[in-house]
Amino acid sequence: MQRILSIAPMLDWTDRHFRYFARLISRRVLLYTEMITTGAILYGNRDHLLGFHPAEKPLALQLGGSNPSHLAECARIAESYGYDEINLNVGCPSDRVQNGRFGACLMAEPELVSECVAAMADAVSLPITVKTRIGIDEKDAYEDLARFVEIVSSGGCRTFIIHARKAWLKGLSPRENREVPPLRYDVVNRIKQDYPALEIVLNGGVADLDQAERHLDRVDGVMIGRAAYHQPYLLAEADRRFFGDDRPARSRRQVVEALVPYVEKQLQQGIRLQAVARHILGLYHARPGGRVWRRYLSQHATKPEAGAEVLFEASRYCEE
């Protein structure tokens, strides 16, 4: 699977509607679901949680959990749905996630993470990857991260997606944990240098494709997070620059036109327009008319009776 460039899993943001929209801009970037817990999959509405449009592929599922047998069963279920990769969350620092004993707190238990990876790898033929931080709390020495990578790779993980910040498990909110701890790209680069056989993907603070391209001199892949959500059209050049795909990208107007049939189908299924429209506010970011686009959608897409024509009207006002 080509993972030179990917979009980070982001809770409440990278749902199926955003992923379909993003795929209209880039055919090739690897997309991730929001983190879904093993408990939700085992005991919840699986079709609602795991269902996706075929156009979203290549698509990876991010799991939250720490019970090897539960993770293995969820991996088998995910494989039956057609996902291309299973990713284990070992990076989220929120209190809720810690209380469930998964996320970044698992960096303190590399042996358990290795068991989880091995259980999933034995259960499915899909690649099992791990998304992590460079450290937690006071365990942020390079040697701590290297030990984690060594132990987890022994369980069968060949790909590590490393957010180049440490996480403070107490005292900082999830948002502060994305901004306050300093970025340490040098740590991620050193991991790649010391473990050349592993695939290392860098995450954290990458704001555009130029930055991503510079990082690829030292690592195997780059994952972009909030920049891709707030400025989604930056992905329009991704296929050509990173995947050698010379097919012309859709214009912003063409993206809107291509999105309409999907929206109409969602409306027929009882989904309100706002569920999709909230993800596309950044389509005209930093473009003339961008403010008009956001204002029109914010005012009209939230109405219960709003239909797909709202997208055309917003685009028309913006283009004018």
UniProtKB/TrEMBL annotation:
The species this protein was found in: Methylocaldum marinum
Similarity comment: family membership: Belongs to the Dus family. DusA subfamily.
Enzyme class, UniProt record, top EC level: oxidoreductase
Domain DUS-like FMN-binding as annotated: residue spans: 7-310
HAMAP family: DusA_subfam
Residues holding FMN: P9, M10, L11, Q62, K131, H163, N203, G204, G205, G225, R226
Site (Interacts with tRNA): N89, R178, R291, R294
Reactions listed under catalytic activity: 5,6-dihydrouridine(20a) in tRNA + NADP(+) = uridine(20a) in tRNA + NADPH + H(+); 5,6-dihydrouridine(20a) in tRNA + NAD(+) = uridine(20a) in tRNA + NADH + H(+); 5,6-dihydrouridine(20) in tRNA + NAD(+) = uridine(20) in tRNA + NADH + H(+); 5,6-dihydrouridine(20) in tRNA + NADP(+) = uridine(20) in tRNA + NADPH + H(+)
Entry cofactors: FMN
Short name of any one Pfam family annotated for the protein: Dus
GO MF annotations in UniProt: flavin adenine dinucleotide binding; FMN binding; tRNA binding; tRNA-dihydrouridine20 synthase activity; tRNA-dihydrouridine20a synthase activity
Keyword list, A-Z: Flavoprotein, FMN, NADP, Nucleotide-binding, Oxidoreductase, RNA-binding, tRNA processing, tRNA-binding
EC number assigned by the record: 1.3.1.91
Function comment: Catalyzes the synthesis of 5,6-dihydrouridine (D), a modified base found in the D-loop of most tRNAs, via the reduction of the C5-C6 double bond in target uridines. Specifically modifies U20 and U20a in tRNAs.
Name of the protein in question: tRNA-dihydrouridine(20/20a) synthase
InterPro entries: Aldolase_TIM (IPR013785), DUS-like_FMN-bd (IPR035587), DUS_fam (IPR001269), DusA (IPR004653), tRNA_hU_synthase_CS (IPR018517)
Active site residues of this protein: C92
